[in-house]
Fold Phosphoserine aminotransferase.
Amino acid sequence: MSRVYNFSAGPAVLPEEVLKEAAAEMLDYKGTGMSVMEMSHRSKAFEEIITEAEQDLRDLMNIPDNYKVLFLQGGASQQFAMIPMNLMKNKVADYIVTGQWAKKAAKEAEKYGKVNVVASSADKTFSYIPDCSDLPISEDADYVYICENNTIYGTKFKTLPNTKGKDLVADVSSCFLSEPVDVTKYAMIYGGVQKNIGPAGVVIAIIREDLITEDVLPGTPTMLTYKTHADAKSLYNTPPAYGIYICGKVFKWLKKMGGLEVMKERNEKKAKVLYDFLDQSKLFKGTVVPEDRSLMNVPFVTGDADLDAKFVKEAKEAGFENLKGHRTVGGMRASIYNAMPYEGVVALVDFMKKFEEENL
Ligand SMILES: *Cc1c(COP(=O)(O)O)cnc(C)c1O
């Protein structure tokens, strides 16, 4: 068996330890004689899995008691609608557009109310984070929305926007659990888990309790109402049970690694290897302004589309998978999530050095 270094933006690399554990428990989960896939979501065994998963996440992120943790389905994209349906009480929201995902979220919200784009970095192909210290926040905005780490463009908010007292909603799909976070600064944090936590099919939403009400837009389906899931502890209907089980294992792995402070240090060390190389390379160049660079997604180019394609092809042959940039931006992108080992990034940089020597 040989595993590649997988730089996919998502679904993405998971800790090998977690995969091995899941494999060992595949046929008989802790003496139940069945796989977690085959188990009732109302069973005692599964109840323990979901309860422990939530508690471990609460420990990792230091989530205050007045926030609910929901395990949902429909992908991060479904939240683009659920957020306005549930939170747009005045039918007004401010969006900061720093990439495709925020743009899509804003577009979806327009179906339900007035959306003000209060800042954008579209003018420079989303290669930076706009100054958000003094935005024209709307008086009657229900919330201010950001995509905290832009998976496609490789930018990250290093400081949160000044929302002037309005509730902040953040899509953290691609930076979930990559560093410590102060949950109290947000009204809602959510993300699809398939980038940095687990298998596709689970969305985790952390929402301040007072926002979870029956006062939703008329016609909002039961399944798209946060209260439904909060009241039923994410067991209103069959949840994505196996995915939640794997997320739970990843939470335990993160705790064992030392928690989010340690992950941040590891992630910084890993990203530095790649960014330092890019900054001195005569062939490769990072596409993001240094101060806004993501620790998770690192886009880079040679400036020549043919050479980019050659690099991606040769990298793949050498065991470095999924380095092709997003279809809307081209070039390359290395996603170096929590589970990507330091050695993987060092090996990639060695390969890039060799490619540079051969092709310059
Ligand atoms: C991948 C991604 C999404 C979309 O996730 P789906 O689960 O496929 O809907 C949304 N936001 C961000 C930041 C992403 O990286």
